[in-house]
Amino acid sequence: MVLSHVSVQHVPDEGPLPGKINNPPPPYFLEGASFHTGYYRDGFTLPKGYESVESFDPAQGPVNMDTYNAMLDAASGNSDTEPDIFFFNIGSYSGKFVFKVDVDPENHTITRTPFFIPKSDVRVEVQYGKLQMPAYPSGVETRETFIGFILTAPDGFRYHFGGPKAIEYTGTETYNLSNHSTSFGVVLAPSSWYLTRIESPVGRHIDLEYIADTFGYYDLAPERCWGGEEYLTLSGQMISRNVVNGVKLSRVYSSTEEILFKAETVREDVSDYTNTGGGETTNSVTTKRLDRIEVNVMDGRPLRKFLFDYDYFRSPRE
Fold first, then answer.
1. Residues 129 and 190 sit within 8 Å (Cβ to Cβ)
2. Of 153, 172, 164, 154, nearest to 193 (Cα)?
3. 118 in Cβ contact with 93 (< 8 Å)
4. How far apart, in whole angstroms, are the C-alpha atoms of residue 172 and residue 240?
5. Closest CA to 214 of 291, 137, 133, 287
6. What would the pLDDT profile of 32-45 be if each residue is shown by its tens digit?
7. Is 195 in contact with 3 (CB distance < 8 Å)?
8. Is the peptide bond before 190 cis (omega within 30 degrees of 0)?
9. Which of 110, 133, 179, 304 has its CA 20 to 30 A from that of 100?
10. Which of 256, 254, 168 lies closest to 208 in space, CA to CA?
């Protein structure tokens, strides 16, 4: 069995962060950086007069302020002008898709039409709406975003993804070693929707269950080098802290058999999720590695078991 998921190419940014946006605007903003939009939530239409944006100067005579503000918001990252790309892998089919967003400012409606890259006979159904998702480091918040997908392959099999208990949320924060010991806030966003059911054309199905899983990890941050030696020293290197509030597979079952995924040993290769003390803390890691897989008949009789062991090692250059 190939377990699949739908993932987004880069961190999706749907929904206001923070503040309230009329749906759809335009204009998108009244207070510049006070609001933030997502392309799939609000759409984006180039304002009238955008081709003259280089000559916009509020101090030099009359200009269209709505156009000026809309272009300024796009340049500042307050409005999302680019659709996220979704990747999928179902059975023998894989690919990616985006949604074309059409905004009707008169009726205040938005239509999202999927397009596959390359063209595909796979069909996608989307659940889009208000989703209660985790805030970092604790609590919840409500966003308007993608909740789940159903992909139907040309052979008639239907693959269900996501739902409140099968979504992974990720966030990242970049900083320098000089403030490495400082705690940072991270904005989480849904980035993967995991497979929850495979349904045959005749109605038979298998289901997948997940349990919550949280952890953090560090990486070197991408950055521009203006000269020849800025980032040759460790103190000048930018660091990226990544946090994951997601799920991991715990059970796959049909009407006759089940597969259990048992994770009991704490992992040693990741960091704390909350990181309340700053730096790379590992004393509160809760995520666990896969220790064994059990295959059982639904009445509880075991069929087979697979045991896993792990080794950790440090780089000899460290």
1. no
2. 164
3. no
4. 7
5. 287
6. 333 456 777 767 76
7. yes
8. no
9. 133
10. 254
Angstrom CA distances, 223 to 181, 276, 286, stand at: 20, 26, 31
The residue written with tokens 């409500």 in the block is 142
The owner of tokens 């090692």 is 313
Residues 6+ apart with CB under 8 A from 26: 45, 47, 66, 70, 103, 105
Identify which of 35-44, 104-113, 138-147, 192-201 has the greatest average pLDDT: 192-201
pLDDT tens digits, one per residue of 11-70: 455 544 433 333 334 443 344 333 456 777 767 766 666 666 556 565 665 666 667 777
Q: What is the pTM of this model?
A: 0.80
What gap in Å lies between CA 209 and CA 211, rounded to an integer? Answer: 7
The count of residues in the chain is 318
Find tokens 């994770």 and name the residue. Answer: 263
Are 133 and 140 in contact, with CB atoms under 8 Å apart?
yes
